[in-house]
Design goal:
The chain contains two helices and 18 strands. It is mainly β. Strands 4-5-6-7 form a four-stranded antiparallel sheet, with no helix packed on it. The protein has a four-stranded antiparallel sheet with strand order 8-9-10-11, with no helix packed on it. It has a four-stranded antiparallel sheet with strand order 12-13-14-15, with no helix packed on it.
Length: 314
Amino acid sequence: MKLIRSGQLKYTQFATGLYRYNKEYCGLNATEYSKKASEVAQNMTDEFASRLFDELELDGDCSSIFQISAMQSGSDKDNTDGNLLSNFVQISRFDMAADYSNQDIPIKRGGAFAPGYIRSIYSSQNSTFTFNSGYSYNPEFGQWESSTFILGFDISDDPKPLAIAEIPGEPINQYAADLFDGHLRVATTKWHWWNDVSTTTNRIFILKVPGDTEGSKMNVTGFTKHLGKINESIFAVRYIGDKGYVVTFEQKDPFLVVDLSNYTDPQVVGELEVRTTLNVSLVLLPSFSNFNNIAIANAITDSRIFILPTPHRN
């Protein structure tokens, strides 16, 4: 069994002694304060790191967690969420069928620090991906923009780091992601309220999951153009094979079929405007009696099943 949990790190025990208002900093100028605070921090670092190591319950060393440096570019412009250590995502693995007569449950763990907060989780038989919502600074517009930080773990045996990535926007839920043929597909909505043309950008991103000798970064191989009309956001997503099915919404509900078979050039190949009562969002459900059908269920009014022909590019 795999258990996934996420927790915020408490910095008060470390940061309290660094605040400028502490009496030991009274009368110091900015340079003197910086020097003194650095000395205080260095004296506390070992104790704080030791306590953190114990509370994370790592299995002897740090081999089961991502190196923080793997998630940073080293650029001065890399202002990812302002705090890479704000959250820790941990995967625990234990055998529920084992004989625990001695009251001892062997647990193996893997994890990673991540910005923001965990928004959703996607898990397949051998891999788990967590999606943390945070913000990245866009120097071109001078704005902080929503981003999703993806952590991938190999869970075929003891949990261990697999891959990392960052993409614009946020997924709506766990159904916004899917692993297919070594590629992770993720649908996100990016909000930009200052834009007077459209406040949203909806896209499906396709990322290549690296092999054993390809490092840890998942590279984006392709992404769609904006899905839906201006100001619409994604309300439902499902994937069946190499096709994606998306509902966007503002006042009406466009139902979009996206061909994802070309990993570098995904394209919308079909669109249907589904009228609903009370502007209630739709839910996409694969019809398990026939995987070429999909059910569109409205929480208030009705449910409909659409027969999906195999779409072809123009």
